[in-house]
Design brief:
Distance between the termini: 10 Å
Order of helices and strands: EEEEEE
Strand content: over 45%
Number of strands: 6
Helix content: under 10%
Structural class: mainly beta
Oligomer: single chain
Shape: flat
């Protein structure tokens, strides 16, 4: 899967996962990219269309890193 991120306004971001319909994936986040990276699963799902949007609100104003990985 591929992941794109768009700032929607204020602290709200749209995280769009794209891939083949039926593909399983996990959307993960990490607070730091220093090795070893501690990725956490935010959601595990299956694409029912070629893309799916998740909304994330950065209320703490902190840096956050995201990735989509196949399942």
């Amino acid at each position: 899967p591929s992941l794109s991120i768009q700032k929607l306004g204020g602290p709200v971001f749209g995280l769009t996962v794209q891939g083949q319909t039926g593909m399983g994936f996990s959307l993960q986040d990490a607070a730091d990219l220093a090795s070893p990276v501690a990725w956490s699963n935010l959601v595990t799902s299956t694409l029912t269309n070629s893309s799916r949007v998740f909304y994330w609100t950065n209320t703490a104003g902190r840096k956050q890193f995201f990735r989509a990985v196949p399942q």
